[in-house]
Design a protein that fits this description.
This protein is an alpha+beta fold. It is built from 16 helices and 15 strands. The structure holds adenosine-5'-diphosphate (ADP). Adenosine-5'-diphosphate (ADP) binds next to α14 and α15.
Length: 580
């Protein structure tokens, strides 16, 4: 079917060709009949006849082929050839006073079909021709003969632009619309292909939680077919439960939560009971869908079965945990016996043997630390790390760690100090900074940080600072050691991350210490971070929520009451609360 544009160009091209045919025929008839003299051949000449023949030849022989490449370009050539011929006729027959000028006006009116700039070009050519006439004829009558045709040309051009302007905008609107429609259907086709072939289950529900889309992978995982599932409440087709086995409905419903939060929820600990009663562990992402007015219009659930990956992970963790546990005992025995062997009070050995055994002791200690860290890591990840939270004073704990590691620091000739607290009237006031956590775990964290600081500091000092505001207590471990490069800082708390350079290569370690520290601190709603510059030293910080004196007192009272089976045990005024 021919488009409107094609039809318009066909009419234009054939009517121009017909006009050329009339010009050519006029010439031949007049010459044949010799009805008029050679100068009165109605302005036709050998030139205009040849141009007419070329034009007709082009329209008949070439245009049908070339228009397939570009209809507009080829039609434009037709019009171009015809206009040259008309211009020649006009010049032959007295310029602007020529009767052929009407034909020119018609051309100016019609060429807007191509685009407005073509009309402007025709108007410009006419103006140039007028200017050349104006320069050669200055008589008053001649001038009005120039100005009037010029004005009529402009009117014809203006009308043409008006006439075709609405056609162009309609045409471009239709073009835009049809290209948008084809783009949309292509996009829809692509999405359809992706959703049908993706390995993940994809379920789309409306605001009433009724299933609208259920892809083949969702069918495979749940055991429901698309026709059965469509229109049902998604809870029926996908009974989900949390890690604790509680169903994810009502308040725990993932979709409701994602609507409330207006964001996606991602979980990888969700269990799905399939239609055949099989339990699958899912990695699931539930996202709300919003319409243009930001109103929830449904939800999308994307999920995959990670049961086998979870089982493999559990097996691996169990293996590491058992292996570390089993190997820690003999390593501890080796450490103990080697310590006895190099103790001059217990055994007599020569210097060479002492040297070898000291090295063996270092390696055994390293191995022991590795097993201990591995064990702590798996226990932490399984949530089985011993955790007995109680109220204790952080200042006291910091001082006990300094006392404990004093000897190690002295051996390295590095000063280890706890930052001086507020001084009042010549006596040091140590503010009581209460926290609720397992003091053993926090001591482990602080010891690890100070150990690292001593390990990576050759000279200067290691300082522990402690400060508290109403809400939090912040402990900092500052050293003047090798520091950490900016590119390593974001990774320093990752599992097994160790910086490998000429300075750290000879220093032992497992890369697990800081990972464990951060996990422990986060267990008690705290935060851990680091600031460091190479060669300038490092500053490791952790902060924990602070308990007010009243809160601490109440907790200690409650604990004491639970232990003694009595209430009303007075604490406070005379005796400080029994804090660790
Ligand atoms: P490791 O057992 O290797 O010390 P950590 O997790 O405690 O494991 O530390 C990870 C890495 O972070 C270390 O190998 C070391 O490169 C870097 N690091 C930790 N503490 C410091 C510090 N105070 N100064 C410089 N580098 C440090």
């Amino acid at each position: 079917m021919r488009s409107k544009q094609e039809k318009a160009f066909a009419i234009l091209n054939w009517s121009e060709a017909a006009a050329s045919a009339v010009i050519v025929a006029t010439y031949f008839i007049l010459v044949q009949t010799q009805a008029l003299g050679a100068g009165e051949l109605l302005g036709t000449s050998i030139l205009t006849t040849s141009l007419g023949l070329i034009h007709i030849g082009y329209v008949v022989l070439l245009h049908p082929f070339l228009k397939k490449r570009s209809l507009v370009a080829s039609s434009f050539v037709c019009t171009g050839l015809f206009s040259i011929n008309v211009a020649a006729l006009i010049i032959n027959t007295g310029g602007f006073t020529s009767p052929y000028y009407a034909l020119w006006l018609l051309i100016v009116l019609l060429v807007g079909l191509y685009r407005p700039s073509v009309t402007y070009a025709f108007m410009a050519v006419t103006t140039l021709y007028a200017a050349s006439l104006f320069l050669t004829h200055t008589e008053t009558g001649a001038i009005s003969n120039i100005i009037i045709p010029i004005i009529t040309t402009y009117i014809a051009g203006g009308l043409g632009i008006l006439l075709w302007g609405s056609h162009h905008s309609r045409h471009s609107e239709t073009e835009n619309l049809s290209s948008a429609q084809s783009q949309l259907s292509q996009e829809q086709l692509k999405s359809e292909i992706v959703i049908r072939n993706i390995g993940d289950g994809v379920v789309v529900v409306d605001t009433n939680m009724r299933i609208q889309l259920f892809n083949p992978s969702a069918q495979e995982l749940t055991g429901w077919s698309e026709s059965e599932a469509k229109g049902l409440d998604y809870h029926v087709v996908m009974p989900l439960a949390g890690e604790d086995g509680n169903p994810l409905t009502a308040d725990n419903d993932l979709l409701t939560k994602s609507f409330d939060k207006k964001q996606s929820i991602v979980r990888d600990d969700v269990t799905l009971t399939s239609r055949s009663n099989k339990k699958l562990t899912l990695s699931i992402m539930v996202s709300p869908i919003f319409d243009a007015t930001q109103k929830a219009s449904g939800g999308i659930i994307v999920f995959r079965d990670i049961s086998s990956a979870k089982a493999a992970e559990r097996q691996r963790d169990e293996f590491i945990s058992t292996a570390s546990h089993e190997m820690r005992t003999p390593v501890a025995a080796i450490e103990g016996y080697v310590a006895l062997a190099i103790n001059p009070k217990v055994a007599t050995i020569d210097d060479k043997a002492r040297q070898y055994l000291t090295k063996a002791q270092e390696s055994a200690q390293h191995l022991g630390k590795l097993f201990q860290d591995l064990l702590s890591t798996t226990k932490l990840e399984e949530g089985k790390l011993p955790n007995r939270p109680e109220v204790f004073d952080m200042t006291e704990l910091v001082h006990s760690v300094v006392d404990e590691l004093h000897f190690k620091a002295e051996k390295k000739q590095v000063a280890l100090v706890a930052q001086q607290s507020a001084v009042s009237g010549g006596t040091t006031v140590q503010p009581i900074l209460y926290v609720l956590a397992d003091p053993e775990r926090i001591q482990e964290v602080l010891t690890n940080l100070v150990d690292n600081a001593l390990k990576f500091t050759e000279k200067g000092e290691v300082k522990i600072s402690i400060e508290g505001n109403d809400k939090t207590i912040t402990v900092g471990v500052h050293d003047s050691g090798i520091g950490i490069a900016p590119e390593d800082l974001p990774h320093i708390f990752q599992k097994f991350y160790r910086i490998d350079n000429s300075k750290t290569r000879t220093i032992g370690g497992t890369g697990l210490g800081l990972y464990i520290c951060r996990q422990i601190i986060e267990l008690y709603q705290g935060r851990m971070w680091v600031e460091s510059k190479p060669e300038e030293g490092s500053h490791f910080y952790f902060s924990l929520p602070r308990l007010s004196f009243e809160q601490a007192e109440a907790k200690i009272k409650a604990k004491a009451a639970a232990q003694a089976g009595t209430t009303n045990q007075p604490i406070g005024a005379k005796t400080q609360p029994t804090v660790k």
